[in-house]
Design brief:
Elements: E1 11-17, H1 22-32, E2 39-46, H2 52-59, E3 63-66, H3 70-80, E4 84-87, H4 96-101, E5 106-110, H5 125-133, E6 138-145, E7 155-162, H6 169-197
Parallel strand pairs: 1-2, 1-4, 2-3, 4-5
Antiparallel strand pairs: 5-6, 6-7
The structure holds 5-O-phosphono-beta-D-ribofuranosylamine.
5-O-phosphono-beta-D-ribofuranosylamine binds at residues 19-23, 88-89, 109-111, 177, 180.
């Protein structure tokens, strides 16, 4: 992506989380080491007060908020000045109002090769269990734009991961998660590029 933001500033990114936040950590680390030099992580908003992701954010000096109601999420996003929103293990479906306010500016990471093993009910270890039970030889991760559906927005980036003999949902999840950490950052760069070019 180009080195300089159109208005000379780094692109303001808010991250929505619900859990452990390893994807958030990957973004924090890549901002710190210069791989995502044009990104400013302005706020981490959690649907749960006990999400470890909040501690990761606080350690990195990023503002945090807990918001259970979607109206509060929208208010937090607006107050943060975020230009792009990343869902990184966020376990809620966003309200149409939020999607409308950030049309083509919200991205999500999903731990399968969409359109396979996605949509309602496919979250966490359930995804990987279904992949193994489906006899798949490969799975993967997908970064996509968020629209009003569940995992239905257009795909930004996908990467395959092998399913190995003897895999359990846990071992497969761990392998896919490593790939998530890489493609989430790349997908974010691509979304920022699209935004700057006015492609979307
Ligand atoms: C990831 O597998 C993500 O794809 C899914 O939830 C998990 C979150 O992991 N939506 P983490 O909180 O980023 O560690």
């Amino acid at each position: 992506m180009s080195g300089i933001n159109v208005n000379g500033d780094r692109t303001k990114v808010a991250v929505l989380v619900s859990g452990g936040g390893t994807n958030l950590q990957a973004l924090i680390d890549k901002v710190a080491d210069g791989q995502l030099a044009d990104v400013e992580l302005v706020k981490v908003i959690s649907s749960r007060p006990d999400a470890y992701a909040l501690e990761r954010a606080a350690k990195a000096g990023i503002a945090t908020a807990v918001a259970k109601e979607q109206s509060d999420v929208l208010a937090e996003l607006k107050a943060s000045g975020a230009e792009i929103v990343v869902l990184a293990g966020y376990m809620r479906v966003l309200s149409p109002e939020i999607i409308e306010n950030y049309r083509n500016r919200i991205i999500n990471i999903h731990p399968s090769l969409i359109p396979k093993y996605c949509g309602k009910g496919f979250y966490g270890l359930r995804v990987h269990k279904a992949v193994i039970e489906g006899g798949e030889k490969e799975s993967g991760a997908t970064v996509h734009y968020v629209d009003e559906g569940v995992d239905t927005g257009s795909i930004i980036l996908q990467e395959k991961v092998p399913v190995l003999e003897g895999d359990t949902p846990e071992t497969l999840a761990a392998r896919v998660l490593e790939t998530e950490h890489e493609i989430l950052a790349k997908g974010l760069e691509k979304a920022i590029d699209d935004l700057k070019k006015g492609d979307r």
